[in-house]
Amino acid sequence: MTVSAGVTIARTLVASVTALRVAKVRAPAADNPAMASDKHLPLKRGTSRYDEAIALENSVRIIRKARGKHNPEDFAEGTPEWHAVIESFLIDLLWASGNGLHDNDD
């Protein structure tokens, strides 16, 4: 895995979480003054947030491999297999980050 692949996956994770949150909330509940703040931690190499994201991603890769699941780099990017695996990988990544999206704990 290259660093750029990790950053791409982290950005995809952020976009996926944002999309899920938007889809699950109603307009009145979405008014949160804290979300209007531009004071987000940067996701740049060398920051603690970046290091945590890479550690989480690597942990998910190792767990998936131990469970016999494929990781995104096992397939050529853009193929149907890659799309299926990346979706599964992101669900596992969200689950590992505390967003319990799994129907069961297998």
Notes on the structure:
This protein has 106 residues and is mainly alpha-helical. It has one domain. It has four helices and no strands. Helix 1 crosses helix 3 and helix 3 packs across helix 4. The model is unreliable at 22-27 (pLDDT under 50).
Quick structural overview:
The chain is an all-alpha fold.
Number of helices: 4
Structural class assignment:
mainly alpha
- Outline type: globular
Distance between the terminal alpha carbons, to the nearest Å? 26 Å
Listing every helix as H and every strand as E from the N terminus to the C terminus, the arrangement reads HHHH
Helix content: 55-70%
List low-pLDDT spans. 22-27
**Measured on Cα atoms, how large is the radius of gyration?**
15 Å
- Main sheet, how many strands, which sense, barrel? none
Number of strands: 0
Mean pLDDT: 76
Keywords:
106 residues, 4 helices, mainly alpha
Give the SSE map.
Blueprint: H1 3-24, H2 27-30, H3 48-66, H4 80-96
Helix pairs in contact: 1-3, 3-4
